[in-house]
Amino acid sequence: MKILVLNCGSSSVKYQLIDVDSKVALTKGSIERIGMADAVLTNQRSDGDEIKITGDILEHTTAIEYILAVLLSKNHGVIKDKNEIDAIGHRVVHGAERFTDSVLIEDDVLKGIRDSFDIAPLHNPHNLRGILACQVNLPNIPQVGVFDTAFHHNMPPRAYLYGIPYSLYTQYKIRRYGFHGTSHKFVSQRLAALQRKNIEDLKIITCHLGNGCSMAAVDKGVSVDTTMGFTPLEGLLMGTRSGDMDPSVILYISGKEELTYAEANTLLNKHSGLQGISGVSSDMREIEMEMKTGNKRARLAFDVFVYRIKKYIGAYTAAMGGLDAVVFTGGIGENSMEIRNAVCKDMEYFGIEIDDDRNTSKDKEKPIHKDSARTKVYVIPTNEELMIAIETEMVVRGKG
Ligand code: ADP
Predict the structure, then answer these.
(1) CB 390 less than 6 A from any atom of ligand 1
(2) What span, in angstroms and rounded, lies between the C-alpha atoms of 48 and 50?
(3) Would you give per-residue pLDDT tens digits along the chain (400 residues)?
(4) Ligand 1 contact, 239 CB (< 6 A)
(5) How is 272-321 classified by DSSP, letter by letter?
(6) Is the pTM value of this prediction over 0.90?
(7) 204 Cα to the center of ligand 1, angstroms
(8) Which of 146, 208, 226, 238 could pair with 388 in a Cys bridge, judged by C-beta atoms 3.0 to 4.6 Å apart?
């Protein structure tokens, strides 16, 4: 089956056409700057062919038209007819409490996505726009919604409830939802496959460390806790997001600096995290480079980043009553041997001991634990697009 996987943001669309049987992306690309006259589409075919097109792409329907034109193009395309696309899988960020699994998109699903605009104003409206654009351009092709929150839907109430009046949960659905679910699911399943074990026999902590960062406690294949919460702001220190802190801090600063709601939001989401502490960059590569030149605030940002991950490894080991494996993924988790080394240092108590040669090897997917270590530690490149394609196929075939 060929599945078109789409991730639609406010001004961008990322896409891949994936052959699920071979698990290969036949072609992939993105459109950036949607809404502007000089929007740019870049496409890379699996054989290395690359093209870049600039155009007037003012909204998502036109963006999908451009993507289809490239997929069908004689010189740069990979299909001859639209109908070779068997289904479309959309990344939808927030499924709220309603979407606990991937679903075939029908009218009441559109309504459900719309109903959660309120709690996911930065993502769901654009995800929906992408779905509607496909309904216009590819009306006969089934579409499936794959939700970032769905993998976490089995968390027990003790993990998802906040300590605020219960009525705020019942009235406004304020609770932990968790995000990056597609990635946590993919890498935990991959870990089980690499270990040749049944996932139901494993207690895994997955660390998705990219610009956004989150961890999940995956017990018997089920996410039982995760660091992101009501929004993707909670938990680990991130590129520009604060992660955990005493909520009173924001009340205090808002009073002192007379911040509006929007300014407070920007402070916590865009000016905090690695960027906020270091004053240098939100990018881990630059933090590591600055640290090597003796920049103390870059070192502080690195240390806070690492410390929080270590704390959550402890917390999630307690939550699951044990630990079999830790997985690192995401741009930082996959590439930064320094971060992996620092997180795993002095963690023998948890059975974590890493092997320097393995940690520094060039392999992308690899075990990095010592053979003698009780807890296995792996680097596993995430592939959210492939996971979305697999889920989409299952739904379309009626196995979802
Ligand atoms: P996103 O969450 O936007 O998908 P990525 O998963 O690509 O982001 O992760 C981006 C992060 O990965 C950045 O902080 C970047 O610095 C970091 N990163 C990428 N390569 C390396 C590397 N070789 N060493 C350290 N950090 C890296």
Answers:
(1) no
(2) 6
(3) 999 999 999 899 999 999 999 999 999 999 999 998 899 999 999 999 999 999 999 999 999 999 999 999 999 999 999 999 999 999 999 999 999 999 999 999 999 999 999 888 888 999 999 999 999 999 999 999 999 999 999 999 999 999 999 999 999 999 999 999 999 999 999 999 999 999 999 999 999 999 999 999 999 999 999 999 999 999 999 999 999 999 999 999 999 999 999 999 999 999 999 999 999 999 999 999 999 999 999 999 999 999 999 999 999 999 999 999 999 999 999 999 999 999 999 999 999 999 999 999 999 999 999 999 999 999 999 999 999 999 999 999 997 6
(4) yes
(5) -HHHHHHSS-S-HHHHHHHHHTT-HHHHHHHHHHHHHHHHHHHHHHHHHT
(6) yes
(7) 22
(8) 146
How many degrees, rounded to 5, is the angle at CA 191 between CA 188 and CA 192?
Answer: 90
Which of the following is catalytic: 115, 148, 219, 363?
A: 148
Distance 208 CA to ligand 1 centre (A): 11
The yes-or-no answer on residue 148 being catalytic is yes
Bridge partners of 40?
32, 54
Closest ligand 1 atom to the C-alpha of 330? 6
**β-strand pairing of 143-147 with 50-57:** unpaired
* Domains assigned to the chain: 2-147 (3.30.420.40), 196-384 (3.30.420.40)
Does the beta carbon of 291 lie inside 6 Å of ligand 1?
Answer: no
> Any idea what DSSP says for residue 236?
S
Cα of 383 vs centre of ligand 1, distance in Å, is: 14
Write the DSSP symbol of residue 354.
Answer: B
